């Protein structure tokens, strides 16, 4: 759903009838990207505090003695944003300037197919990267170490497509090299969508020498030259296609032997038997084979992989979190990094706090409306209508909510001026009088008048919580947060 309209229609359309289409750059995703902070350099103290002193309990991935680069989950104190912090081996980046330049270059990228880089830190011997936190773990976990159910065929195809789109995006931005691409580098966000970790876009040296996986999975040209190329990345993508097809980490040489012998049964995941057509399986094998060609020049480009994989997609109307088998409800709050005081009060349905905030805001957050009211004051025939609003405001301030409803209703029925704040205030009055359905109608009407106002969505959420529609309330809070974050981002650019 786009951020400009409510999660709930006036007839309360059931949530399970909503359509979730696969899209490369939906309005919601664009709003999420706009809400991301600009890349910045963090202090070591900030990241130490965010990760509770780099506590062992906060470690979310670890690579062992040969590549002891640890990733921590953290939460920034200044905006409550959940982050992933990668702490490098002290010898990985001896050149501070090179590290900062690389990080800033990768930090310029912004895509809904990436776990985006939002900052870094370089103090003394410390080298750290800061990225968006992805709550639903890695492809490796869901593919090789699943507990409840294996990954569905339709979702495996979606993972392949989204990963190809990520590589194509990076290539279009001049970052075609990705180091050590494997199933641990594919992460799942709060909506269950696959994303490529931005950490692999960093290289440890100017000449691109960075590869640490098992030699059986290493591109042949890397073994000859020690260099990563764009074609090497496509080779590694081919190994992930094998992972998705087989549910196992099969060395490419062995897989190619099975393919040449047309022994597809040993190559495909037995858990998927009967869940996909032979044609689809054959086509995915064909694409993987092209990626794994010995000669780099014979491999396809990322763009051609996107085209080939797009035609294979299944169940495109089903949301990723459903196919992945995770509960989006428990993770929707991860998308909301920090609500404004009004959003926070609405999330708790703290009506007294909402009243205090609306009183302090007055009509200032709608300067356009305030100017309209001032203009109308010059017309004598409008004076009584304006007085109704003033009487309503006076009753609202005195917490006489029944009287406020009476005067606000007179103002609205006069129909002379569409004022969203009056609807927002009457919404709260209805909530105070235990009339959540009427409150929801007012909040939605306010949004129709002013679609870019986050407060209308926050009040909708409070009404939805009061109606017991918690899932829709949480989603509406998210939409309000995205609008507010986008507005702030635009203000910073001015």
TrEMBL record:
It is found in: Cell membrane. It catalyses: L-seryl-[protein] + ATP = O-phospho-L-seryl-[protein] + ADP + H(+); L-threonyl-[protein] + ATP = O-phospho-L-threonyl-[protein] + ADP + H(+). One of its GO terms (molecular function) is ATP binding. InterPro entries: BSK, Kinase-like_dom_sf, Prot_kinase_dom, Ser-Thr/Tyr_kinase_cat_dom, TPR-like_helical_dom_sf, TPR_BSK1_C. Keywords: ATP-binding, Brassinosteroid signaling pathway, Cell membrane, Kinase, Lipoprotein, Membrane, Myristate, Nucleotide-binding, Serine/threonine-protein kinase, Transferase. GO terms for biological process: brassinosteroid mediated signaling pathway. Its main location: membrane. The keyword Cell membrane applies. GO terms for cellular component: plasma membrane. Pfam families: PK_Tyr_Ser-Thr (PF07714), TPR_BSK1_C (PF25575). Belongs to the protein kinase superfamily. Ser/Thr protein kinase family. This is non-specific serine/threonine protein kinase. It comes from Heracleum sosnowskyi.
């Amino acid at each position: 759903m786009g951020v400009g309209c409510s999660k709930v229609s006036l007839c309360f359309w059931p949530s399970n009838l909503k359509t979730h289409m696969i899209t490369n750059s939906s309005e919601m995703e664009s709003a999420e990207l706009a809400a991301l902070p600009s890349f910045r350099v963090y202090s070591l103290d900030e990241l130490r505090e965010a990760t509770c002193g780099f506590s062992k309990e906060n470690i979310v991935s670890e690579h062992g003695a040969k590549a002891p680069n640890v990733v921590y989950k953290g939460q920034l104190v200044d905006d409550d944003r959940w982050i992933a912090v990668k702490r490098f081996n002290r010898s990985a980046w001896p050149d501070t300037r090179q590290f900062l330049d690389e990080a800033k270059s990768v930090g310029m990228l912004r895509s809904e197919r990436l776990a985006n880089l939002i900052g870094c830190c370089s103090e003394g011997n410390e080298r750290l990267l800061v990225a968006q936190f992805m709550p639903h773990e890695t492809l490796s976990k869901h593919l090789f170490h699943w507990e409840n159910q294996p990954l569905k065929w339709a979702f495996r195809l979606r993972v392949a497509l989204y990963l190809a789109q990520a590589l194509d995006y990076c290539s279009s931005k001049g970052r075609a090299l990705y180091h050590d691409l494997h199933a641990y580098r594919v992460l799942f966000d709060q909506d269950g969508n696959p994303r490529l970790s931005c950490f692999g876009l960093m290289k440890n040296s100017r000449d691109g020498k960075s590869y640490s996986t098992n030699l059986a999975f290493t591109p042949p040209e890397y073994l000859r030259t020690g260099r990563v190329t764009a074609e090497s990345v496509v080779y590694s993508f081919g190994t992930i296609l094998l992972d998705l097809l087989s549910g196992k980490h099969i060395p490419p040489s062995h897989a190619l032997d099975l393919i040449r012998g047309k022994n597809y049964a040993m190559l495909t995941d037995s858990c998927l038997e009967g869940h996909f057509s032979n044609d689809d399986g054959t086509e995915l094998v064909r694409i993987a084979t092209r990626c794994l060609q010995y000669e780099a020049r014979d491999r396809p480009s990322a763009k051609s992989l996107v085209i080939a994989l797009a035609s294979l997609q299944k169940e495109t109307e089903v949301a990723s979190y459903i196919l992945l088998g995770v509960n989006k409800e428990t993770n929707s709050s991860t998308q909301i990094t920090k609500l404004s005081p009004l959003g926070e009060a609405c999330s708790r349905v703290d009506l007294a706090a909402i009243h205090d905030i609306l009183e302090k805001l007055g009509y200032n957050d709608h300067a356009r409306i305030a100017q309209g009211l001032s203009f109308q004051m010059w017309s004598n025939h409008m004076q009584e209508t304006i007085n109704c609003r003033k009487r309503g405001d006076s009753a609202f301030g005195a917490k006489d909510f029944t009287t406020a409803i009476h005067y606000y209703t007179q103002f609205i029925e006069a129909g002379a001026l569409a004022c969203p704040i009056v609807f927002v205030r009457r919404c709260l009055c209805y909530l105070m009088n235990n009339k959540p359905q009427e409150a929801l109608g007012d909040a939605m009407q306010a949004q129709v008048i002013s679609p870019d106002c986050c407060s209308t969505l926050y009040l909708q959420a409070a009404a939805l919580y009061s109606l017991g529609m918690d899932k829709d309330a949480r989603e509406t809070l998210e939409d309000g947060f995205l609008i507010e974050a986008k507005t702030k981002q635009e203000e910073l650019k001015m």
